[in-house]
Amino acid sequence: MSRVALAVTLVATLAGAGSAAAAESGAASQSRTPIEHFVVLMQENHSFDNYFGTYPGADGIPHGTCMPAGRSSPGEGACVRPFHLGGRAVPDLGGNGRTHRIQYAGGRMDGFVRAATIDRQTAQRSVMGYYDRRDLPFYWKVAAEHVLFDRFFASAADGSVANHLLWLTGTQRGSRIPADGFGDLPTIFDRLEQRGISWKFYVEDYDPRLSFRAKGKANLSAQAVRAPLLNYPRYVRDRRLFSHIVDLEEYYEDLESGRLPHVAYIVPSGASEHPPGRVQAGEKLVRALITALSRSEAWDSSAFMWTYDDWGGWFDHVRPPRVDGAEYGFRVPALLVSPYARRGYVDGTRLETTSILKFIEDNWNLKPLAKRDARANSFVRAFDFSRPPRKPAIIGVGHRGRRPREAASPAIYLGYAAAVVLSGILLGLAALGPDRRRRRRSGGEAVGSR
Amino acid sequence: MPLWEGTTAGLRVGRPTRLSAAPLTELRRAGLPLILAIAALLRVWQLDRVGFNSDEAVYAGQAGSIAHQPDLQELFPIFRAHPLLFQTVLSLGYRVHLGESFQRLTAALVGVATVYLVYEVGRLLYGRRAGLLAALVMALMPYHVVVTRQVLLDGPMTLFATLTLYLLVRFVMSRRRAWLLAAGAAMGLTVLCKETSTLLLGAIFAFLALTPELRVRLRDLAASIGVMALVIAPWPVSLMLAAPTGTGESYLTWQLFRRPNHDWLFYPATVPEAIGPLVLLAAAVGLWLLRREGSWKETLLLCWIAVPVVFFLLWPVKGFQYLLPVAPPLAVLAGRALGRLWPSPDGKAVLKPRRDRRLGLAAVAIVAVSLLIPTWERVEPAQRPDTFLAGTGGVPGGREAGEWIEGGVPAGATFMTIGPSMANLIQYYGHRKAYGLSVSPNPLNRNPSYEPVSNPDRAIREGELQYVVWDAFSAARSPSFSEKLRGYVDRFNGRLVHTEALPAATVRGKKALRPAIAVYEVRP
């Protein structure tokens, strides 16, 4: 065999192998639903009642709610009623396992103010505060146009570390990040890697130096808590895996270039809505993410979900169910945006943070990571795949023109028609007058012109 | 005996021009339908090849809002600056699901009807031949053709103004009160098309003042004014009943105090060419040579011309089409002069040799061709120059860009353009909210119909503006705002998502495609 023939054979073999691999990858990445791109964002520290407690049609704050004040100061009432927070400054109300236990109060759900007061040493009325349409116009409008979940619980009755880890692994490993990271605990990204399904972990204001290796550095705790992959030695040390963790700016670039991965996890930084941060900053981020998705080619086959890692110490009136002998966390807001999402649907399916894993596993036919995600409900009911995808629409909150009163048109038609009819009558009367008759008789030119 | 009773005694009236005999009779008989056919052809030829311009989009949008078109209702408030007679008629097209063609065809029909009325006015004043020639001039006049090919208010305003003129002539000739009342009603309809036509009241009063021999009973005049007020009434009444927003009043205030948009040479530089220099020459020469035959007729026509011309020369706000109502009396005066180039049966003619028909025919042909050539250049889009003057036609590429936006941009997206003109096109064709960067946030310096974007930088950062549109036409008019807009494109990761390119002359005089409209995505 000549060298040329050998080279041709080698190239053909490699090409065949390459195309076979590509075909296999393509087949593996095929989703079981029309959703080929799933984007999920994890915000922080708000309960369902805190954001949607007054949303029409949702399981919101019951009428007559008044939370026992606990160690009330002299002169204060015995209980605190829910109130509109508006633009008031709010403190970080906490939200760890201990707070949860006090607030849960053995199932009585009457310790919300008391827990915050114990922690802060002063009465914390803020716990009972809520936001509404005036403060969260974009979120409320999304709920009206897409899907709002009103039975979505944080998976752990604990704080950020536990719930962020459950979001990736379906497993609870305490409230702190172990010194040597999370070891070999499997993540959803391991499953995706195995199946050749593209994924990325986008981090707002990402600093790649701030991983578990850089203990003690500023902001380590925040970035590492939000992005648990940075606490996995194998993800940090393996350059290929590490390259999946990128700055959020790449999300926009990927959308523009048509390279949005099949599964995208997003964590914020300054826009996390974690009190005392401004909720509007989070709204702005979510709006930018959804807007970019809606004007990309990926829109027709995408779903965007965002939820909150934990309730952040805010009041929520629904007692969380128990699972595996432990309570879920309190309810957190969760919303879904998709061309297949049911319009204005309030989904009451019991869901939790690991329901996100459940959906990904079901959609791409992946093996469950743990018992929690295996048993969790999926939110697939929030979709309506029997209809064609909705056209993209940018959800705005601002002014959309001055809609005229409906009564305007009849008034205009009547008024202007009357003017034309009156003119026509006068013109007719003039035309049929004596000078016309005179002209007819005379058969000549206009009278008076000559 | 009253001066005008029974006879025309005391009035110096023009010599009647009666039809000459034999060979031209057949031609004259077919003349009017032929002229109307030419008028119609010039007004509908390639009518939809170029989409609406900004003003057309606004009026069509208002019509859509009146007809409760959901996509337009949110973007075009019904009550803006002008009365709504024409927009209400256009709204009927939406009611029966007729599109853009209906609106421009309605405008063209209005143009043809005006040509017919010019014939009637000319015939009444100077005889059938003058009427035919006036109608021919009007049918071919670039000014009238161009404006009545567009969905503008000036075309219908000119129609009703010409009707008012016709009825006034009938009144003067017959002195029957009914004609004066009908003239009042027609004047009311003129104002219901566009309020600037109230200027013509000045022309009417000037005519009455300059014709003392014409004595009109005060009560007749008052009755006519009353009829006019009654016809106009739906405008303020519907404003008060349906939308007490104050926009109309604000608009008037703004118009009174706004800065000039053109210098005083604007009309001398643009309108004579559009009317036709030979038409103006014919009218002027006719007035001079036939000055001994001068009568109330010329006084009326000259008042009808002079008052709007003087007013708009002095008025700081100028628009190409604002002087359209002066076109019919000019056409009549030109028709009068051209008609006198033929010998009449009594042997009277203006020029020597008096019996040479060929001279008359040649003069009419020269005037007609001098009108037809520029008209054809404006009517046939392939002949269009790549410069653009507001009111002279549609905006090339504007409709196409808007339609791309309608299909290619998510609903609810918000746009920023250099100025309000392109913003109107995006709103009409793209059904997306658009703001003009050049619209001043200071209410004293902006048209109250327009909404400013007070802080574009913030609006983009907050995600309220997602697209930016640059266009060559607005850039030529506002280079500084064009530069500013491009700055936002650069600063906010602008990504070009669509371009409309148009042929334009290169430095070497060749034609090449040049981007005329560019749509960018921007993000914080």
Compact description:
The complex is a heterodimer of chains A (450) and B (524). Chain A is an alpha/beta fold and 450 residues long.
Going by helix content, strand content and strand pairing, the class of chain B is: alpha/beta
The CATH class name of the domain at 36-49 and 132-382 in chain A reads Alpha Beta
- What integer is the average pLDDT of chain B? 86
Name the poorly predicted regions of chain A: 1-25, 442-450
Helix content of chain B: 55-70%
Give the percentage of residues in beta strands of chain A. Answer: 5-15%
Q: Can you name the CATH architecture of the domain at 36-49 and 132-382 in chain A? A: 3-Layer(aba) Sandwich
SSE sequence of chain B, one letter per element: HHHHHHHHHHHHHHHHHHHEHEHEHHEE
DSSP helix count of chain B? Answer: 23
Rounded radius of gyration of chain A (Å): 31 Å
Overall mean pLDDT of chain A: 86
* Class by SSE composition of chain A: alpha/beta
Q: Note the quaternary state here.
A: heterodimer
Q: Biggest sheet of chain A, in brief?
A: 8 strands, mixed
Task: Give a verbal description of the structure.
The complex is a heterodimer of chains A (about 450) and B (about 525). Chain A has a domain at about 35-50 and about 130-380: Alkaline Phosphatase, subunit A (3-Layer(aba) Sandwich). Helices cover about 35% and strands about 10% of the residues of chain A. Chain A contains 16 helices and 16 strands. Chain A has helices at about 5-30, 50, 95-105, 110-120, 135-145, 160-170, 190-195, 220-225, 235, 240, 250-255, 280-295, 355-365, 370-375, 410-430, 435-440, and strands spanning about 35-45, 65-70, 80, 85, 130, 145-150, 150-155, 200-205, 245, 265, 300-310, 320-325, 325, 335, 345, 350. Chain A starts with a helix and ends in an 8-residue tail after the last helix. Mean pLDDT of chain A is about 85; it is low at about 1-25 and about 440-450. Helices cover about 60% and strands about 5% of the residues of chain B. Chain B folds into 2 domains: about 30-250 and about 280-350 and about 360-385, no CATH class; about 400-520, Rossmann fold. In chain B, strand 1, helix 20 (about 420-430) and strand 2 (about 435) form a beta-alpha-beta unit. Chain B is built from 23 helices and 5 strands. Chain B has about 525 residues and is of the alpha/beta class. The interface between A and B is large, with 53 and 72 residues.
